[in-house]
Amino acid sequence: MVIDGPDAATRESLATVDDPRLRVVENPTNVGISNARNIGIRAARGEWIAMLDDDDEWLPTKIEKQLALASTLKREDVLILTLYYDRHGARETIQPRRFPRPGQPISEYLACEFPLFGSRESFLQTSTWMARRAFMLDHPFTPDMRINEDPDWLLHAIHDPINQLAFVREPLAVFHTAESHTRLSVNRKMGWKEVRDWVVDGKDLFTPKARSYILVTHCLRACVESNCGIRVCFSLLGDCWRYGAITPGVLWFFFRTAFLFPAVKRWAPRALIATLAKWGRSSWAGTRG
Fold first, then answer.
1. Rounded to two decimals, what is the model's pTM?
2. Radius of gyration (Cα) for the chain, nearest Å?
């Protein structure tokens, strides 16, 4: 386990675990999540790496079932995942709800799978990942990335989603969205310009469609939440034109994020908002544009 920076409470808690398999690496200073993960991967001694963030949970049979699936695979460069419970207070969903389609680029799978009114439902939560240590040593996390380090790793390492992503199709981990919500919201608001630059500069990582979807979902949402103003919102649509692709889906998500959702949140009754959100989570019509 890697403790990223001095943390006496965590160190003392781990000291009570009487298991020789537990090895603790405590960084003298905080180096960030990408660097901390690379340190942990290099320090590991086993054949397999399975990640667990400190605010998530594994169910008891997770590793067992992933290893069983691994024994059936011929390729060495495979990321083995499970479904997971996305838990936000009393509300719980099973994710991901969509798996890659034959021939679908990894960037479009990660960025473009949205229902009409709901949130992205192809998120590959890191605490479900398992891969060979050799594969992860060959593809380290990009050092010093502050946000989006997980999709960045996937974009660099996974070139054939159908054959490089293997799923145990039952939920074997728990992602506590409520505990992460504040941190994620702050990162999104503070880091949308970094995401915009990452998308625009990463010409080999994204298809034009995927680039535009990130600009009109992640970046635009952060702009709206931060009250950046309509001019900034339209500048992101301009980026879609210059660096991505304008499709019906991109135009819909721009309108949805910049105008429709803010108006609904301002004027609609809460019951109507809940009904639309529930319906949107079960609709995939908006993923084809």
1. 0.88
2. 20
| Nearby residues of 219 by Cβ (< 8 Å), 6 or more positions away | 192, 195, 196, 199, 236
Instruction: Compute the distance between CA of residue 251 and CA of residue 247 in angstroms, rounded to an integer.
Output: 6
Each residue's pLDDT tens digit, 43-69: 999 999 999 988 899 999 999 999 999
What is the arithmetic mean of pLDDT over 187-209? 85
Computed from CA positions of residues 146, 150, 152, 157, in that sequence, does the dihedral angle turn out positive or negative? Answer: positive
Question: What digits encode the pLDDT tens for the residues 123-136?
Answer: 999 999 999 999 99
Q: What is the DSSP string of 133-157?
A: HHHHHHSPPPTT--S-HHHHHHHHH
109, 165 in Cβ contact below 8 A?
Answer: no
Token reading at 103: 């021939």
The DSSP line for 86-106 is EEETTEEEEE----PPTT--H
What is the distance between the alpha carbons of residues 8 and 100, in angstroms, rounded to a whole number? Answer: 42
Q: How confident is the model at residue 289 (pLDDT cuts 50, 70, 90)?
A: very low
